[in-house]
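worker-03 picked up job from queue 'complexes'. Input manifest follows; three sequence lines, order preserved.
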Amino acid sequence: MNVPDQVLERSAETAAKLQLVDCDIHPSLNHRQALHPYLEKRWRDHLDTYGSLAHCVYAGRGGPYPRFTPETARRDAWPPNGNPPGSDLEFMKVQHLDAHDIRFGILEPIVGANNARNTDLSAALCTATNDWQVDEFTSKDKRLKASIHIGAEDAELAVEEIERRAGDRNFAQIQLGSRSVEPIGRKRYWPIFEAAQRNDMPIGFHVGGPSPYAPSPSGWPDYYIEDHHVLTHSAHAQVASMILEGVFELFPKVRVVMIEAGFAWVPPLAWRLDNHWRKMRSETPLCKRPPSEYLKQNVWFTTQPAEEPEHREDLRLLFELIGFDRMMFATDYPHWDFDDPQRALVMPMSDAERRMLFHDNAMNFYANLD
Amino acid sequence: MSISNAIDCDIHPGVPTIKVLLPYMSDYWRESFTARGQDNFQPASYLPNAPIACRPDWRDGDAIPGSNFDLLQKHALDGFGSRLAICNVLYGGSFSISETMGAAICSAVNDWVKAEWLARDPRLRASIVVPTQNPQLAVEEIERLADDRRFVQILMPVALDMMLGKQHYWPIFEAAVRHSLPIGLHAGSLYRYAPTTNGWPSHYLQDYVSNNHAFESQLLSLIAQGVFVKFPDLRIVLIESGVTWLPGFLWRARKTWRAVRPEVPWVDESPIDIVRRHVRLTAQPIDAPSDPAVLERVLNQIGSDDMLLFASDYPHWQFDGESVLPDGVPARLIEKMVNDNPLATYPRLRETIQ
Amino acid sequence: MGKHIVAALAEIPPGSQKLVHVRGRAIAVFNVNGELFGISDTCPHQGGSLATGATVGLTTSEEPGKFCHSRPGEFVRCPWHSWEFDLRTGQSWCDPRKFRTRPYDLSVEPGEALVAGPYVAETFGISVEDQYIVVEL
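worker-03 finished. Artifact:
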């Protein structure tokens, strides 16, 4: 299944003209023990014996829903050395960073570190993941920026990790999963927002995470076609939770971005929250203004997986409703539902809108992009 | 826009106390509820004193919202000039952990609705409430009442013991089709699972807003499990689901299906087409934007004028005064919502009305 | 119209696939159990290279829960979003009228015949002992 020659040839052909910031690139481990050099012996032994136990069905794999492609990846993203997609920086450069003229790429490691039920292990894995990102990627290619991976379930350890990295220019944001064990606006997570605000680091919520709960309020769907779709609900829930619990009232300078959750849901959620908050605001005293105002103030969205309305003008309407200033382009490279910068968002845009979407918004949003 | 002579597809008579149901129960259950001193089976999905449960000017002191027949008649039927209205009772039988108790309460509710609501106003129709906790018992209840043509729908909360598309529930769908009864899924949860995939929110407001996670995932389940292939005549009505989320849901459903449809090869057409053919929504609330022009565009994105049904959601607080529908709903759509679409959705309504 | 040599048959043995370029066109060539198929390489959705996609059979169903698998290897899934394309027609499965990629007729000719022309061998020499895949454009 490896066809590197063809890939390289094709990438050179399609070199893009648009300089961009890609807000979602997934680096991956080139072998199972790739984090071992960054872990104490205690945790190396633990991992070799028990693995990283999460809320899951199977021993040897992550989620309960079998994905549709190996490593959830684009089939053309396997490097020539046969290691997993996203693990080979040289190949990533040629196929992705160079080919698409990417000025900066934000790394979103999904290596299970923040999913471990053992929160001490989770914290050790997150620290290791952060060291590994710098060693293997950001120190070798200045276009790449790391995310401060944290295990949110132990907020104290999470804050320690944020403090450890906050002055390091290799890092552009704090990374959280969209599926926390409790709604993320709850008080037990507030120290994370406090630390983010204090250090002026934005928070990226990437879909997925350690939640033990069913994907649906009615339980467990049978199929990946369902699970893949309803993943987006975790992002809806986090946005609603942060707003209603008062996170943006208490920490008004916090900036968050919802990553890989699509965006067609944003305007209807805002309308729904506003309409029902007006009647029941007495329940949520820390949400002092209409929820949509916090959305406009504190929340951004990446574009992938791009919505594909039946009529092209409806795509543009979504951007107008959410605001071109809130939207940031992401490819999700090397995953299978990758969005191509040239082809994913087919709609009329002014040059100014295009610049905001592909470049300027991310430059302003993230830390250390300069 | 003022509306009259409409068919109101969602009103809520309230069960004030288990006592009103006791006359419709067997000796065993009558004694059981009395001897055990058990009452207050209002579902947590509709906290009786929460603002959403009753519009302020429709409140009747501390009474359970919707429990006063005269007020319902005055506010909902006379007030909106509706020619017909469908009673959807949200009460403990549909939510209980126990299958047998659930069945007993559901049966009593249905007989109570028949005797104390349908019999008192010819404009009223009703949904059969069923214990989905045990589909066999649910089917028995449908069979018991199906001959009464004033029951026009089978009603269940949207979040159940498990995903709705599973074969576990197919006997209910089979009975529904056999008796020309759509399945009405109403906002609300049995709370077997957390209201969000991230667990339990602190606030009722978030629970309520999150109902559309259940609506979306149940629609996907019905599609992915091939329910509409197996039961081509089945109609699903989403009640109190909101409306404006639908276009985005359809786009994402189609996009995912195009990619991974071999996983569910019996789904051999776009989910958008399936939903347009089989699914209807009551348009209360709509969850509208403040700009009517935007609302009109979003409603047009649904791509079908057949799907929305007029509803007041009485006594729930969704709008004030006479503005049942927000500005921006196109006149041509309102015309269909108030009459044609309900008649097409509920075949039994056509039997008693021209 | 002219016939163009796109590859030596030996380069694309059964079960393999290759991207070739003929007169500026990118063509994905598949050898399915000895039968050759050519389609335009670019996915009409977002432009994934179909030559790098997985070849699969056709999955259909007669009723919910039942799987029917036929035509092994005759469909390619785009390497990006997994849309399926019928190698015989170039049509997508999900929306065959709207989304399709151009199919090309391929034939196999002996090198002996090709040496005589009028074929155009663009990138390689021809050996009279070998077999070649030819497309008419």
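worker-03 released lock.
Chain C has one domain: 3-136.
Chain C touches chain B at residues 56, 59-61, 63-68, 81-84, 93-95 (CB under 8 Å).
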